[in-house]
Amino acid sequence: MLSQIFILSSKGDRLIHKDFRGETCGTSMDLADTFYRRITSLPGDQAPVFMAHEGQHFVHVRHAGLYFVATTTADASPFTLVEFLNRLVTLLRDFCGPLSEKNVSLNFALIYELLDEMLDYGYVQTTAPEVLRNFMHTEPVATKPFSLLDLGSIGLFGAETQQSRVAPSSAASRPVLPPRGEQGTPMKVDVQGEIRLKCYLPSCVEMRIGLTEEFCVGKSELRGYGTAVRVDECAFHSSIKLDEFESGRVLKVTPSQGELTLMQYQLADDIPSPLPFRLFPTVDQDPTGRLRLYLKLRCDLPPKSQALNVRLQLPVPKGVSSLAQELSSPEQTAELQPGTKSIHWDIPRCQGGSQLSALFKLEVPGLSRASLLELGPANLAFELPAHTCSGLHVRFVRLLGPAGAPQRWVRYLTHSDSYVLRL
Amino acid sequence: MSGSGLSYGEQGGEAASELAQEAVPAATPSAPAAFGLFSSDIKKNEDLKQMLESSKDSAKLDAMKRIVGMIAKGKNASELFPAVVKNVASKNIEIKKLVYVYLMRYAEEQQDLALLSISTFQRALKDPNQLIRASALRVLSSIRVPIIVPIMMLAIKEASSDLSPYVRKNAAHAIQKLYSLDPEQKEMLIEVIEKLLKDKSTLVAGSVVMAFEEVCPDRIDLIHKNYRKLCNLLVDVEEWGQVVIIHMLTRYARTQFVSPWKDDEVLEEYSENNFYESDEEQKEKDQKVKNTYTMDPDHRLLLRNTKPLLQSRNAAVVMAVAQLYWHLAPKSEAGIVSKSLVRLLHSNREVQYIVLQNIATMSIQRKGMFEPYLKSFYVRSTDPTMIKTLKLEILTNLANEANISTLLREFQTYVKSQDKQFAAATIQAIGRCATNITEVTDTCLNGLVCLLSNRDEIVVAESVVVIKKLLQTQPAHHGEIIKHMAKLLDNITVPVARASILWLIGEYCERVPKIAPDVLRKTAKTFTNEDDLVKLQILNLGAKLYLTNSKQTKLLTQYVLNLGKYDQSYDIRDRTRFIRQLIVPNEKSGALSKYAKKIFLAQKPAPLLESPFKDRDHFQLGTLSHTLNSRATGYLELSDWPKVAPDPSVRNVDVAELAKEWTGILGKTKKEKPTEKFYSESEEDEDESSSTSASESESGSESEKEDKEEGSSDESSGSSSSSEESSDSESDSKESTVKKISRAAAKSDSEDIKKKAKRISGKRSPSNSSGTESASSEENSSDSDAESDSKSDSESGKSRNATSSKKEEKTVQDGKAPNKQDVFLLDLDDFCPVTTPVAVPTAAVLSPSLTADLEGLSLSSSSVIDLKKQTMFSWLWVSLRMILVSLLYFRIIIFEGKLKIAITNVGCLRTPPFCQCL
Fold first, then answer.
1. CB contact under 8 A, A418 and B911
2. Does the ipTM exceed 0.90?
3. Do A319 and B455 make contact, defined as CB atoms within 8 angstroms?
4. What is the spatial distance between Cα B108 and Cα B651, in angstroms, rounded to a whole number?
5. Disruptive mutation site among A101, A111, A112 for chain B (greatest number of B CBs within 10 Å)
6. Which residue, of B173, B204, B349, B592, has the greatest Cβ tally within 10 A?
7. How far lies B892's CA from each of A358, B848, B889, in Å?
8. What does the pLDDT read at residue A221?
């Protein structure tokens, strides 16, 4: 059970503070400050999930720069605490729009009401949005009328018909870890994807979203005539009706305004398309004693697709003093980061099927075999627009009811999470 | 505050004008500033007060929002208390809620004024709208004013027999609050808990178990009778309730069932030597276990009913089930949780962190569980350090001969990590693998020696420390490595590493006879600049060399001892004195110095490289104490399995109650039999007051289920048709039984009821058919005034028809009902028709019984039935229900289809499960 909940801004201002059990009357006000002092004294992402302070235990999660903190005195399931905070964050997004300091402080009345309904004396009562909506009376205060998908492409469509629009976006985020073994085989590949729906329709209309017909769950299932789009595990949002899923791979949902994660899926080890990038490094020493690093990066995407914002990060021996470079095209840049002793090679855009190369010459005084060990592994970050690694696509988005023809967008995006190439 | 602020402002102004001549330039500008500051504050609060007193709701609402905003920012708004508390009776629900927020925050500080609001709550507790009743109870119990303890007690008692499960749920939550306010009420509160534990609503189950855990976690006897019901309801309970119930049931099961782990098997599992055990052996063993041990069916029930929850969307539920299986299931079955736990690793980092901690503990004891998922624990470059180290820990625990080579290659890349803390942890891990798996010790040692030439000092230092530990376990080939390390001594500055090298040289000085004295010579030079840790080891080295090679090192050792004698640290001075007495022979030293060599150069036991998670296993998994590795307040110890199982019959529910349970849970499938049973049993239990009281809740939930199926609009017609049906099918004798029972029960309660009759009728809403029925039953019981009055009003007509078709008596007695209605109509202005817009949630989303409960919520004013009145009529109700159930055969089939969907829908669908359930 929770004693208190507070939401702090990134500067440590108290946005919301609620004491549920009155266990710490005297010190409750200082607790938030204590927490902030302790959390800021720790470096970056090292903050432990649990911190103890005079019999109180702090649990926190951080989202959009805000700290969501719960304190507890007694033994409770730690999962309940963390999970509750995460649900709280999702609910706040649902009820008040995108999280920001301003949004939270404007909607405090709503948040208090929400907390009141969710927790009683520190015990979680319910977090189901459908149930909570029945109890809520306060209207949310929106900071902006509508900010549909923070995308650059919005301008193209104009903003006149904001009243009725649907924007499901299928984002397959993709943390892959394919370290090269001896033959350049991937060691472990993991794809995590989700379909997100952002809906700004004023009224509740049922929506039908058709997925690729060949979509299969699990290893054994077989469907359709084409190559199967296979995922290992698949989880749906609780509000989705799946009665047509088995027959036509159609998800039916009556979305409320705001963002909703319709489906999450995972895929491991056995992905249908080749990995988007492969790296062929050659390392040798030239006669003058410099370390020569020849990197060849091949993009294995289909020719129509492209990768954006590719950044290769390669740690080099500590003793490096200078870097000379030869890159294959002028738009690329590379530099040596003195802090982390690594090369950053930036490629703004990379067409599918193309091959890029770079030659780095490193001046390393006192080069030894041991210092060669410090080379690598390379870390790659990129974005693949209009491409999903699982091959999952949205066939159609249809609305039932008289809503007319609202705007619809389907967007695919693949992010790298951890794409490591071992040299 | 406003008053004082004003006066201060005035004084300041005066003082400023007076002192203007006195040449205090600083005061002059500050005074108006202060004045300005305060005046604006006053103005603001005055402004708020005025707004609160205005007649317009919008102004009030605005004011309340600003006040709550002040609370949110931590400003003091207590002075507005009188103005705010007036609005507690506001009709506007939005204002009301904000006033509640304010009250909960400040009531404790302003106890006298807070009492003003109590009467409003007492009135609201009898409101026809269950949402209002519930929130009134919630706020009333949140006001921490000791004077109102009796009022709270009364309110909780009444609410615990409310017809709305939502109100009962709030009553359960109020129990803990009252307990913390006044622990002396414990006995009475336990009674309420006992009553609510019998409740069959899924909404209540979670909340009452929360109360149980806080108020009386040791009263395990209260659970016995409800154990099976809780197990059966579990899937439908709301997810946070599930967590609490599962934890409670885990504790319960550990006290009530015998261990499913065979003793010798347990020992083997725990012993370090035997983890290579093959699966086949394992299976054989299981079969052996099965031969000797049969699991209690209740134990099996718990395991079976929690299994589907592993698919839950809520990480807390999954972990709760995982720990249940870990602590309760036979070893062979516990494996099914590992996949779900690994799945949790895909969620956000806080969850990952706790899951990994729990897996770490599990993997120490039972490697096999997580071995197939080895790759899932590979470290990603984006993981934060805390997760990296945990994964490393798990990988180390999982290492065995088969996978060690892959693991070592993986570790090799981790050592190169930018994150030095992690690299150091990796070296430790390699060390542990090397000691655990003898085949690879040499490989590991060589690898670690290679690392000694690493550029990074932390890596080298860590390697030295680990190599030192490894060498102790491998006394064979030291010479070369020690020589190598002696060379390193010049460059390494990390104290621990230096100390380790010195210790090594000292310990094995006979193997490196030429180098050792030289090292002592070098360190003696730098002695004064060394860290304490290193100084101690220099002394040690000196002593050992003195004993083995006194010719060369006698003077050197003397010199070092002299340096130590005047050192700043106590420790070093003490050690110096001790060593000197022990090794340097003089007249005072006794027999000990003869044995000095044996003392110093004894064979030392090799250090055991152990997992830092070793000591956590005495905490229950999935608890805060386990995560923190220290006892948190309120941690409830998991007891050991009992040697002999306690009497399992305590969980047997009385036959009458069992029958009810059937009607409640299984009734949909077994229709005929329970009906028979029910009546026959009820005859026996005729004068058992407990059974009637238990049936209260039953009838309540039954009527709700009907609401669900029939829809509240045609409820009355539904019941009437069913009653016709009943008159056809039921034999007369049975009816008379029903009558008899209801009569008997009624008599006992009749006194009570008469008193309350008026109040209740005031609460009843005109459209409430069940309400009128209960009223009519009341008349039935107090059959003193049996004036026949054929005239009846239209609302009660239908429902009364339902009953009158069976009993003439009732029609006769019904006469009073319309009168009562009149009374009610006069009081109508008291009844505020608060319409809360309640959207009925979609049935497919939520589990059916939960939906039933929630729909109960949305009924708002129409569901006001005082339960007391229902008491004596419940028998009749149940009989009607039984027939209705048989009528609704088709519906039920659909209903069950939904149920299945709901269960699979609880969480993640991994394999394609839809085809089966549709």
1. no
2. no
3. yes
4. 43
5. A112
6. B204
7. 70, 11, 5
8. 63
